[in-house]
Protein: Histidine--tRNA ligase
Organism: Antarcticimicrobium luteum
Amino acid sequence: MAKPKKQPRPKAETPKGFRDYFGAEVTQRTEMLRQIAGVYHRYGFDALESSAVETVEALGKFLPDVDRPNEGVFAWQEGAEEDKGDWLALRYDLTAPLARVYAQHRNDLPTPYRRYAMGPVWRNEKPGPGRYRQFYQCDADTVGSGSMAADAEICAMLADTLEAVGMPRGDYLIRVNNRKVLNGVLEVIGLPEGEDRAAVLRTIDKFDKVGEAGVRELLGKGRLDASGAYIDGVGLAPEQAEPVVQFLLAGKTVDEKLDTLGQKTLGEIDPDDPELHSIISMILASKRGYRAGSGLDVSASNALRNAATLHVLRELVCNSVVGSEGVNELEEIVVLLEAQGYDSSRIVIDPSVVRGLGYYTGPVYEAELTFEIFDEKGRKRQFGSVAGGGRYDDLVKRFTGQAVPATGISIGVDRLLAALREKGRITAHDQGPVVVTVMDRDRMADYQAMVAELRNAGIRAEVYLGNPKNFGNQLKYADRRHSPVAVIEGGDEKERGVVQIKDLILGAQIAESATLEEWKERPSQFEVPRTDLIAKVREILDAQAGGQD
Amino acid sequence: MAKPKKQPRPKAETPKGFRDYFGAEVTQRTEMLRQIAGVYHRYGFDALESSAVETVEALGKFLPDVDRPNEGVFAWQEGAEEDKGDWLALRYDLTAPLARVYAQHRNDLPTPYRRYAMGPVWRNEKPGPGRYRQFYQCDADTVGSGSMAADAEICAMLADTLEAVGMPRGDYLIRVNNRKVLNGVLEVIGLPEGEDRAAVLRTIDKFDKVGEAGVRELLGKGRLDASGAYIDGVGLAPEQAEPVVQFLLAGKTVDEKLDTLGQKTLGEIDPDDPELHSIISMILASKRGYRAGSGLDVSASNALRNAATLHVLRELVCNSVVGSEGVNELEEIVVLLEAQGYDSSRIVIDPSVVRGLGYYTGPVYEAELTFEIFDEKGRKRQFGSVAGGGRYDDLVKRFTGQAVPATGISIGVDRLLAALREKGRITAHDQGPVVVTVMDRDRMADYQAMVAELRNAGIRAEVYLGNPKNFGNQLKYADRRHSPVAVIEGGDEKERGVVQIKDLILGAQIAESATLEEWKERPSQFEVPRTDLIAKVREILDAQAGGQD
């Protein structure tokens, strides 16, 4: 033990950027992860919990925007001063460890290997408000299948997962893109592979912040940002930038055109309308989703949306081989998803999806919550992304030298929990315990027997274990614990074979709002025979639960 | 990506002493922790998940037997080379972080604060067989109550927890001791506080290994151990060592005497038998647990066991103040537990319990599994300890300067899981998914629709996503996945509106044991209309589940 006089006391503080989670924060997350695991399991995914500690070598360097020491990870060197060994680090995500696990155990694992993983990851980043250096991820990946069916399955599973945890259909959208399509567009405009392409990717990723005009400027010469600093552009000529912008906006363009069509009957549509031309020709050429004799209703529009976007993308990539491959892959995903009943109202092709991580090689996806919240400045905005992923066909190759295709998703657990709270899907705190108060210190054994009875009946309950002298403190404690009921048995009650049962929820309501007359009619404290303790407590708990509905 | 020619490939290996957990290893642990959390919650304990990373300063140095660098923890220094900050470390248990959390948040927490926590902890120790540097703990503690009712509650909860996860009554024993009793005995024999007392504690802790004679030698001059090395003793005179040995054996002595008494009717007992004297006088003086007119039956023996041990201990500590306080505390725990129905067949006083950690100040407890297993050398032995804890009244004081009493338990999650496997309470692997095979690559959408139907019916299912060319590989895959059923739909089946359903469990049984005749009578493959897919699969799954009972 520290001797206060000789040695300063340690500070009782989490390290900067770390935090603790209490009560319902923990149980709600556990429950949500259990629901997610249930969906993943039903899809045939197996659990994996890899070591939290990896060699730095095995982790690799795939974190974006890293300019801090240790490359964004928490790392240390094994062994004593005189006998230093490997550098070890805490994992920064669950994907890099999966590549290591698969390479290490591939002979014992099924191929394809579907696995899910959930747990904390650590980033050695500058902490900020709401930005922690330890947070939860919840991943599902399929290793060893290059089939687009694997990507389609991940997207379908993500939609099912969001609904399973309580996010209603219509409040989320899975947005899908393919890295190859942009590469096709860049090939068409004559931009070679390398840094310029990466710069285009980064520019597109800023669309949410800077808008269409901003992206145009940044693809060209550059722009003045809000702080007054001049940001250099990629340096594309306007005729090079234009197809990139069209690519970026393809989803939005299709949405707007379908909206216009939705307001007209088929008879009213001018098939030669230049604005609508490409979409209309596509609709007329396609049989899928088109209902002869009726106007474009919502479900027809949903059925057409992805097909129309594919049509636009196909025109943009012209005859680029990689671009066409990307569009074909997207089409395959769309066809597989529609066969399972997932149309564009749930899973939509959207070229503005980029995903920061460098290792994606094909389809990328993102789950976005579309309902609006107020941000810290009181402005309305969409809740935004809660999950993302994509195909990374080269990660396992780092270890084995052999290409192993893989694709997967990562859910941001804390953001999804925040969204569910926002939607009122989870409550602020756990149900507190019934508190058996201590009126007579010497009869602790009686109170323990009482609480054992309650617990054996499946009721959350505890004896007050603090100093029982001040009865008011016991009730304050019960209040702090969100206790539904307090049980009181003084010497007088004991003698008469009764107990007092106090309905604390009703008591609080009465104290807050009721008039004296109501108070008399609905007492919140009851005297019952000791033998009726369990029955009466249960009755009150049931009534409270009913009142909350 | 690494370029294999320029840069060596990273090794696909967990760091030494770390491991990965697959499938059922993860889900079974998750399920067990869920059951444990259920019991803890019912007892009124609230969840806490503290940061995995703490400052080295906050963690303190409480690990026993540490002679490695970094004092047994994984630690690193914050910040860049030129701007070094705090030393951080991974937590080595869940108790030291609780003390920090309570000190940091005490104004927002209820007092007493009952909390549970579960998660990995890390030890920078030499790895060995079955000894890992990351493992799970599952703790429950009550901070802010000095009442023995808090300790009694922890013991009762531990018993309930073991039964809730599937350990039958009779296969476990919670053993309780109190540090103060030994201190009382040492006071009586005139041994001052300090290193000698610690040495006695370490010696008693070796009882399991060296036995009674070994302990006697080690308390005295020393002994030759099995390797031929001479181990120095504590140096007590024989008359000093004797009370210590009697203390250590008090539980065992009482057991033996009660066994003897159990074989006699009361009439047959000689009240002057010197061997039995102290126990008999105690029995005759006590009213608790004694049934007049009948012999000592098992339940009477159970009721007497703890009281008799307390009697022996009280004689050993004579008039030592601290010793008497310890015995009184133990008695209080016993009385409270018996009021709740926990007698010595579940929770027993046993002075041989020591618990290595230095910070315990009063009661200590240990959960032991008493059934026998074969060790790695084929010898029978008791399974042993799966949980331990005790009262540590000074840990929070390190931070705040104010004494805050606390007591709690830690369950060794991996050992408890191993015990449940040993008892056949949990199965070797999860139920595998139904595998929809791919006969025709172009009809992937059909197979996806089929699997979506199965999943929507709540059936774990997947489409084979590997290369479908070799059908044998698909069935091998299903086998590796422990799949119960395979679904097959070739072009011919598609045309006829049917599917083939293969019962893989039955198929394996037939292949293993049946004669050709039985094979014909019980086919393991069925052709059913496509519309009956779900019903037939469910029928087979139900039959398999029934067959496993």
Q: What stands out?
A: Chain A has three domains: 15-146+393-430, 174-350, 434-548. Chain A touches chain B through 110 residues (CB under 8 Å). Residues 174-350 of chain A form one domain. The longest strand of chain A covers residues 363-374.
